Amino acid sequence: MALEIIKQGAEGRLYLGEYKGESCLIKERFVKKYRHPELDTQITRQRMKAEVKAAGRCLAAGILAPKILHSDLNTHKLYMEYFGSAQTAKHFIQQTVAKSGEEQAKQPLEELCRRIGGIIGQMHANNVIHGDLTTSNILINPTPNSSDGYDIIFIDFGLSHYNQATEDKGVDLYVLERALLSTHSEQPYLFEHILAAYRKTCGKDEAAVLAKFEEVRARGRKRTMIG
Length: 227
Hints:
The chain is α+β, with helices and mostly antiparallel strands. The chain has helices at about 35-60, 90-100, 100-125, 165-185, 190-200, 205-225, and strands at about 5-10, 10-20, 20-30, 70, 75-80, 85-90, 130, 140, 150-155, 160. It has 2 domains: about 5-80, 2-Layer Sandwich (Phosphorylase Kinase, domain 1), CATH 3.30.200.20; about 85-225, Transferase(Phosphotransferase) domain 1 (Transferase(Phosphotransferase), domain 1, Orthogonal Bundle). The strands form 3 sheets. Strands 1-2-3-5-4 form a 5-stranded antiparallel sheet, covered by helices on one side.
């Protein structure tokens, strides 16, 4: 079966392909020519292994992520579960606003953010640091028979790691806040609803994580002011 390319980014390509006769998504990482070949191979393999481990830890904790079907470290390809009907949270937010208008969109988007925040809290309670939290790395998968109407699936764990450090969890939140301000500047309320839900599920380190988040945020603002 010829591979059908469905997306190309800075880090790699996504193909629609097959694994053991079933449709799957194939993620292929590029060789980075600017790196020493041995270093590039090492970094690529580390990120592939991190993605496999983080997705597995999430699934074990009841957090939806793609099932990794096969990992080929030699060809730098991951074969994973494909969600054909899903769209990114980025597109979901943009489409909801476009269809309903800014005011009418608030209620469904606030509910979406509460669910996202609760899941990130679970992730951090299990010491999984995503590393690249953006609305492009969250899928909204329609589930017509469920009461909620959709599942939320976290993807792209290439920068993830397993760590109990409150600093890393604070940085994870800060990355998401900056991404929301950049991509969804017309909906400034999104992050506050994510954070409110996060507080309820992130576990015993809630106060320490949020204190670290405020520190990281202050450092970020200082860098912005200084340039």
